[in-house]
């Protein structure tokens, strides 16, 4: 399952992120945190707690809808960070691994790995799918973080891709090629996690 931030109810910016129809024994339910919910401070519980509750509820619903399938979680950018915070705070029942599509390690132009400290509380395998030109993840910082996380973390770089996995024309390939590479990598990683977990 994956999460993403949406700017409106019909946002399709990342609609390609669902595993292709016909993938063997795979379902990819998605949920969104609306832009307004994300952008405005709530008057009740703090925003991080709302994020974690939403992630936990979405994982529980995915498990209810497809009880026979292995459960992995993650998301694109803020959605991946939101899901990982929930997993670090209290392991999400049944989740075997986390996959991040463009993990937002830091704000653009302000390199830091402080946003990733919670990942040391995550005990399931983690996959980072990251564009090599992503301005929200300094590559050197990201590689050091993954080395510190140890064997449970792996990185797959999408050459010439930015945070949205778009590539410039000079790269010699199209956005669709990068998207296919991401989905193929994700599918292979999911199978390897399932095989390891039994």
Distance between the termini: 19 Å
Number of domains: 1
Q: What is the string of SSEs from the N terminus onward?
A: EEHHEHEEHEH
CATH class categorisation: Alpha Beta
Give the overall silhouette: globular
| Helix percentage | 25-40%
What structural class should be given to the helix and strand makeup? alpha/beta
Report the radius of gyration as a whole number of Å: 16 Å
Instruction: Characterize the biggest β-sheet.
Output: 4 strands, parallel
Report the mean per-residue pLDDT as an integer: 82
Stated plainly, the CATH topology is called Rossmann fold
Looking at how many chains there are and whether they match, the oligomeric state comes to single chain
Number of separate helices: 5
CATH architecture: 3-Layer(aba) Sandwich
Compute the number of strand runs.
6
Uncertain spans: 1-13, 35-42
Task: Give the strand order, joined by hyphens, for the main sheet.
Answer: 3-4-5-6
Portion in strands: 15-25%
Could you give the topology of this structure?
Elements (H helix, E strand, L loop, with lengths): L1 E5 L23 E5 H5 L7 H19 L5 E6 L1 H12 L5 E7 L24 E6 L7 H11 L3 E6 L16 H23 L1
Parallel strand pairs: 1-2, 3-4, 4-5, 5-6
Q: Can you put this structure into words, describing what you see?
A:
The chain is α/β, with parallel strands linked by helices. The protein has a single domain, classed as Alpha/Beta hydrolase fold, catalytic domain (Rossmann fold, 3-Layer(aba) Sandwich), CATH 3.40.50. The chain is built from five helices and six strands. It has helices spanning 35-39, 47-65, 78-89, 139-149, 175-197; strands spanning 2-6, 30-34, 71-76, 95-101, 126-131, 153-158. The strands form two sheets. It has a four-stranded parallel β-sheet, sandwiched between helices. It has a two-stranded parallel sheet with strand order 1-2. Helix 4 links the parallel strand 5 (126-131) and strand 6 (153-158). The relative contact order is 0.14. Residues 1-13 and 35-42 have low confidence and may be disordered.
